[in-house]
Each structure stands twice: as structure tokens, then as C-alpha cells.
Amino acid sequence: MLKKIHFTILLLVTIFLGLGNAQAQKKNTNTKIKNIVLVHGAFVDGSGWRSVYDILSKNGYNVTIAQIPLTSLKDDNATVRRILDKLDGPAVLVGHSWGGTVITESSSHANVASLVYVTAFQPDKGETTDKWYSSQPGLPEAGILPPDNEGFAYYDLEKFHAGFAADLSHDQATFMAHAQKPILASSFTTAVTAADWHTKPTFGIVPTADKSINPIILRNMYKRSGTKITEIKGASHAVFISHPQEVANVIMAASK
């Protein structure tokens, strides 16, 4: 009789522990990364992320926008790392255009759990942005001007709408052109020292009508790295402004 009682107790304990483990595993499966860090690219600032920010915030994410100085890869990386240092846990790190090079350099930070490249450069260790930008013929609409006498590169005002933001209104593109933030051109020839896209989940967005970065370059980078690619048909280089929901969807997928 005692043996039967002991057996029954052991059976109940085993079932209880099994259910507890199953619930814990289910909880872990459904857990999402709550922190998102958005990094802008050259010629713009963080305000362009506003619509993406609103969507993510309404879905319960803690979103921080990095205002990088565009004065060097070192300076931009330092800005992003200061943000990551202050977070209370893992984050999805998102970069647009030049911001892709920056998040690659920051990718080794302990709080970076996954990466999202929004029509963004994705160099490997020892590679420069310029290596990839010059790997395919430039498109005629692109308007990056030679550096000025202080070494800063600007986007041609006359080409900004067609080359950078063709799917935005003329008025919005004109305002962005006149509000643009130049980048120190030597940033493009600085090699990255980290590339944790090798080991961390990585997602990429290819706007098929990008005229600033040839989409062939994007596909070549993302194919090499095994990045999960989402193509947005007809979208321009300003895809994060013109298609915020689609961009936010990719970021949310990267958080799970």
C-alpha cells in the first residue's frame, strides 16, 4: 500500500514538473525583445524615423533614436554604444543606409540581440563602405557630391527628390534636401572592426526602386551574410519614411 502511495506521489510530482517546464518553454518562446534602437544614415537625421517610432511604441516597444554626428565611424559608433550601455536588456539594432555600417561596428555590444539593415551597408571586418558602394555602377539619379574643402559630403539639391526620396512628395523631398546633414567623407573609407551579423539574427530590407544604393549591392551583401531579406516594391532610399508599416513589421519580426 505504501509503495503504491509513493508511486502515486512521484507520478504527480513528475507531471507537475513537466507542466511547469512546458509553460516555461512556452513563455520563453513568446518572449520578445522590448528595446529598439534606430540609427539614421547620411544626409538625414533621426526625425525621419518618426512614423516607425510611433508604430513600434504603440506595440509596446521601448524605442530610442540615435542622433549620430556623421563625423566619423568612431564617433557614430560611440553614440550608439552610449545608448546601448543604458538599456536594461537586449535590443534590436536598426540602421538605415550608412547607419548599416554603424550598427555593424556596434554589433558586438552585449545588448545587441539582432540586427536590421534598412537599405543599409553591411560590411565585414576589415571592409569599408566605399568598397561595397563602388562594387556596382552608380545610378544616374544618385547625387552624392564630392567632399567640400572641409571634407564633408552633401547630396545634390537638384537630385535629392529623384535620387533619395522619389516616393515622397516634392515638397517633403525639397525640405529634406535643404535640411540635410552632411557626412565627413572619410567615414566611407574607414574599415569596420566588428561584424556580429555572422552570429546574430539579421534582417534586411531592399527597396526595389532605390536610386542612392544600387539594389544589386544590397542583395549581394545580404546573400553573402544569409540575411533574411524583405523586398519592398517601388520603394525609394527613403523607405523608412514612405513605408513605415512594412519597415516596422520587419523590426518586430526581428524582436521575436
Please supply descriptive tags for the structure shown above.
single chain; 256 residues; alpha/beta; 6-stranded parallel β-sheet; 10 helices; globular; disordered N terminus
Alpha-carbon distance between the two ends: 50 Å
Trace the largest sheet across and list its strands: 2-1-3-4-7-8
Overall geometric form: globular
SSE-based structural type: alpha/beta
Q: Spell the H/E element sequence.
A: HEHEHEHEHEHHEEHEHH
**What is the number of strand segments?**
8
Determine the fraction of residues in helical runs and give it as a percent range.
Answer: 40-55%
| Rg estimate, integer Å | 22 Å
What is the third-level CATH name, the topology? Answer: Rossmann fold
Runs in which pLDDT lies below 50 for 5 or more consecutive residues are: 1-29
The overall pLDDT, averaged over residues, is 91
Query: In what range is the share of β-strand residues?
Result: 5-15%
User: Quick one: CATH superfamily?
Assistant: Alpha/Beta hydrolase fold, catalytic domain
Total domains: 1
Contiguous helical run count: 10
CATH architecture: 3-Layer(aba) Sandwich
